[in-house]
Amino acid sequence: MSESLYTQLLDLACGAFLLAAVVILWRRELAAIVRIFALQGIALAAVAALLGVHEERWDLVVVAVGIGVMRAGVLPYLMHRALAAQEAGRDPYETGSAETRETQPLVNVAASLLTAAALTLLAYAVAQPLTELDPTPATQALPVGLAVVLIGFFVLVTRRRALAQVVGFLLLDNGITATAFLATTGVPLIVELGVSFDVLLAVLVLQLLTTRMRAAFGTTDIDDLRELHD
Amino acid sequence: MTSLTTVVLLTTPVAVPLAAAGGYMLTSLSQAAADVREPARSPVRQPALVGAAGGRVDRAAAAPPPGGDGTRRADWFGLVSPLAVIACGAVLAATRGDDEAVTACGGLLRADALTVWMLLVVGAVALIACATAPSYLAGERAAARADARSTALFHALVQAFLAAMCLAVLTANLGVLWVAIEATTIVTAFLVGHRRTRTSVEAAWKYVVICSAGIALAFLGTVLIYYAARQAGISEASALNWPTLVDRAGQLDPDVTRLGMTLVILGFGAKAGLVPLHAWLPDAHSQAPAPVSALMSGVLLSVAFTAILRYQVIADAALGTGYTRTLLTGIALLTLALAAALLLAQRDYKRMLAYSSMEHMSLIALGAAIGSPLARTALLLHIAGHGLAKAVAFCASGHILHLTRTTRIGRVRGLLARAPGVGGVFGLAVVALLAFPPFSLFASELGIVRAGFAARMGWAAAVALVLVLIAFAALAARTARMLLGPGPAACTDESPATSLWPLALGLVACAALGIATGPLTDLLQDAAQAIGAR
Question: I need a surface site. Which of A187, B99, B230, B483 has the fewest CB within 10 A?
Answer without folding.
Answer: B99
